[in-house]
Amino acid sequence: MIVPLGMTIYFSTIRYQLLYPDRSGFNGWSNYEFFVTDPAFWPAILNTLILVGSVLAITVVFGILFALLLNRPFRGRGLARVMLISPFFIMPTVNALVWKNMMMNPIYGLFAVISGALGLEPIDWLSDYPLASIVIIVSWQWIPFAFLIFLTSLQSQDQEQLEAAVLDGAGSFSRFRHFTLPHLARSIAIVILIQTIFHLAIFAEIFVTTAGGPGNQSTNLAFLIFAQALQGFDVGVASAGGVIAIILANIVAIFLIRIIGKNLAT
Question: What is the pTM of this model?
Fold first, then answer.
């Protein structure tokens, strides 16, 4: 880890354009200035925040919902758990291809077929709603992770408290609000921390489906760094972007760790 990080920091301070290798040399802060003043930089930051926040909200809500449903005994519960967990084991690239070609294709995708059957005009999701499409694709793969964490936490909940609450006349919503949700607080904090770190670097889903477009509507920070390095052939500027991404990720991680620490302390 230290060697690639050191090389990235070094490359971010030199002029390293692959198309002009003879023009290399110390560049100071110019690479950072060029990356930050790129017209796509602030849209990429905003898209990254929207993407991370939306995926976290969806995965936490649906993860809790599915955990509550599958924590109850019913016939076929084991099969339902396996089916719900299975999307997490699909590679991100394969996951994106499945959604792009089988679900969101405006001609023969499942959504287009359903829209046609209802007499509606098919929607070109990846062109009309690119960022929302990425949110759906990533959320579908990460809901099982949240579900597993929450289900494990629910199985350790004190059932005697719930039974006593039922005898006292507490309804389902009251039991969830005053007993289940506080019990899940630590698990929610862990899910948010882990997923935030991973979602800040989402790349495969964007590369396979929208390629950051249309324009820069679905470009996040990770894809912008890729574009500078492998499309613009400017390793110096891309390395500066990588350093900025590392700093932002650490700021977010430290902030979340402190929140979790306070949560665990209480």
Answer: 0.89
